[in-house]
Amino acid sequence: MSRTAGVVIVGGGVTGTSLAFHLVSRGVRDVLLLERTALAAGGTGRSVGIIRQLYPTRETSQMVKRSLAVFQRFADAVGGDAGFVACGALIGVAPAMRSKLLATVAAQRAVGIRAEVLDPADAARIEPRLDASALGAVLWEPESGYGDPAAVATRYADAARRLGARIEQGVEVSAVLTAGERVVGVATARGERIEAPVVVNATGLWARGLARTAGVELPIVVGRHPVFVVERDAAFGRPHVVYLDLAGGAYVRPETGNLTLTGSLTDDETRHPMDPERLGAAVSLDEAAPVLARTSRALPALAQARYRGGWAGAFDITPDWMPILDEAPVRGLWIAAGMSGHGFKLAPAVGEHLAALLTGAAPPVDPAPFRLGRFATPAAAGTFVASYLR
Ligand SMILES: Cc1cc2nc3c(=O)[nH]c(=O)nc-3n(C[C@H](O)[C@H](O)[C@H](O)COP(=O)(O)OP(=O)(O)OC[C@H]3O[C@@H](n4cnc5c(N)ncnc54)[C@H](O)[C@@H]3O)c2cc1C
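A: This is the predicted complex of the input protein with flavin-adenine dinucleotide.
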């Protein structure tokens, strides 16, 4: 059995669906997205969905700003509800990081990001329940917040379909097919061959394995990042803002039903490799306890919250914790992976960026920092927190 497509996108998370939407929006015809299980079944469906803007590089700052603008008017730009809640985000840093924060935020203002560095005592103005006594500064991003990653992927897919893209779920790509140094299509696990001059690998945690079928080696490790859920007690009052405590090493973001999602910002996920098939596996209270202790130090009123469970998430991590958005050495094979824990908030800009590159247009953001070739010279090993401040 054989059929054809102009572009095959492999993977139906926020990356693949955003790209499908942006390609058809640019008039590209014959776009086919293949998802092996269901839309948002991968990292997207396990994401915490925080949209914060603090990034250490100009290009990623530009991307997150472009993405935020889409989340703010998602119904008009894409259609439907992204679940975006602009509750604002606070980011606390240790005294030693204060000057770095000031310099980074000054550079970010140049690209139009709205953020204010507060003295720790002034953070109470935003979130009176915060214990900022050990901090050196607190960043306030009034426009940040969180969204619903599965809804965003679904809405992008709906919009792409309306504009003519074909989206097929339950179709696993078993190999990228090549002839010489060119891509010629994909083979599926059900024995089908789909001829296509352009294939995009947007398979997130599975991207390294799929790239290997075309002889392409991606510097991506899959690192475990568990998420824990607690229920705030009635005395807690109104929901807290998104808070990322870079000094204490934990984050919290509110969820409906008086729930709070929380996780660690101190563990180096690259040291906890995980089989992607374990995504969503159960976690234990023992594992949660040290993280909950840190969130309770940051927001003491959370000490009364009840543990409700959690899940094993994972990030597709590159050596510098920034995405790969580039054509592989095999012509026609594009990589949209290695999102390194940023893929939700960047998804609108990532889709826009890749659609420009694939159609030979100038991308809105300098593509150099996202090229695969940047790893030809070994990068100094980064950390997740270094993707906020360097
Ligand atoms: C616990 C956790 C918390 C996070 N928190 C945040 C956050 O707060 N803010 C933020 O911006 N980002 C966050 N992220 C990161 C972000 O959610 C991800 O980077 C993003 O969702 C990845 O989307 P994706 O489309 O690239 O990959 P995925 O969502 O993993 O999609 C890849 C898809 O490819 C499919 N697939 C795989 N192999 C094949 C194949 N051979 N054939 C067909 N289909 C295939 C999979 O089934 C999957 O649906 C978090 C991630 C996790 C796991």
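Residues 89-142 form one domain. The CA atoms of residues 67 and 349 lie 5 Å apart.
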